[in-house]
Design goal:
Keywords: Signal. Helices cover about 15% and strands about 45% of the residues. The chain contains 1 helix and 8 strands. A 4-stranded antiparallel beta sheet has the order 4-1-8-7, with no helix packed on it. A 4-stranded antiparallel beta sheet has the order 3-2-5-6, with no helix packed on it. The chain starts with a helix and ends with a strand.
């Protein structure tokens, strides 16, 4: 009976040891945090507000908000230069006062490319690239 118990424990330790070895990273291998991306610019292709004033766009993520330096008309581009994690959802808004802000849309950051925001008769895009700003 005792020898069966010892054999059983030995097998359990061997299996557990294999599981620990398989789960441990190899020597010299770095485990990296989430990849980052740099949102470089925002372009207003079609503003939500009509007239000479244009839109006052801002971008919102789970880590903060970026606001345009002023009003932006059709065809205007502003530098953003904000680092976000890939997989982050970015929302685009037009700031309005005294009425509520207008939601233009949302898109998710990948490894590089363009975020597209279309809503409330407006169209914005934001360029981004892989890596931190």
């Amino acid at each position: 009976m005792k020898s069966h118990l010892v054999k059983g424990l030995g097998a359990l330790v061997a299996v557990a040891g294999l599981a620990l070895v398989a789960a441990a990273p190899a020597q010299g291998v770095e485990v990296s945090p989430l990849a980052s991306a740099c949102i470089t610019s925002l372009t207003v292709h079609e503003s939500e507000d009509w007239g000479a004033d244009g839109d006052e766009p801002f971008l919102r993520t789970n880590t903060g908000t970026w606001s345009a330096p002023g009003s932006m008309d059709n065809g205007s581009t502003a530098a953003v230069n904000r680092t976000v994690d890939t997989g982050t959802t970015v929302e685009a808004w037009d700031s309005d006062s005294p009425d509520p802000n207008d939601f233009i849309g949302s898109d998710t950051v990948g490894s590089g490319g363009t975020l597209t925001f279309r809503g409330d008769d407006a169209h914005y895009t934001a360029a981004y690239r892989a890596g931190a700003c």
